[in-house]
Design goal:
By secondary structure, the chain is of the alpha+beta class. The chain is built from 4 helices and 5 strands; from the N terminus they run E-H-H-E-E-H-E-E-H. The chain has one domain (27-155): Heat Shock Protein 90, CATH 3.30.565.
Length: 165
């Protein structure tokens, strides 16, 4: 071509160039002092995460309530003799949200003098697809919750356009 230069094909300043990228799994991590006012901070953060991921209102309400209960357990039970931290992590894989609430407190143990009613963990178990209690690789006490995010999975139905459609 006459008058054609290779630089003519290069985008100009401010031009958008679409480069294929692998989208990493969204992750969320928050570490706060285990104080009552920070439970609301975590709840609010999960509201924003749910909005960013376009989570249905009913599913998001379940997630926020379960996470609130788990964080409240850290505040009330983990550090009876002082202050400590509350770690909250979340990851989305294959339409499932996994949330881990962890602390370095005394662990999950029965307490005769417990100020709670003992309804938090059973409530979380009802709201989540799965609930695991234990100790993580870093020796922190963990409450691990998994939630289904799409409505078809939550209701036990099949999504439109699925197999056989």
């Amino acid at each position: 071509m006459v008058g054609h230069d290779a630089t003519d094909d290069a985008p100009g300043p401010g031009a958008r160039v679409d480069v294929p990228q692998e989208h990493p799994t969204p992750e969320f991590a928050l570490t706060l002092p285990a104080r009552a006012e920070n439970v609301a901070v975590v709840r609010h953060a999960f509201g924003g995460l749910g909005d960013a991921l376009a989570v249905a209102d009913a599913a998001l309400a379940d997630v926020k309530l379960a996470v609130t209960e788990a964080c409240t357990n850290v505040v009330v039970h983990a550090y009876p003799n002082g202050d400590g931290l509350m770690d909250v992590r979340a990851r989305v894989d294959d339409g499932r949200l996994t949330v881990v609430v962890a602390d370095e407190g005394q662990g999950i143990v029965p307490r005769a003098d417990s100020p709670g009613l003992g309804l938090g963990l059973p409530l979380i178990a009802t709201l989540a697809e799965s609930l695991e209690l234990g100790t993580g690789e870093d020796d922190k006490t963990e409450v691990r919750m998994t939630f289904l995010l799409d409505e078809a999975s939550r209701s036990g139905g099949s999504a439109p356009g699925g197999a056989g459609a």
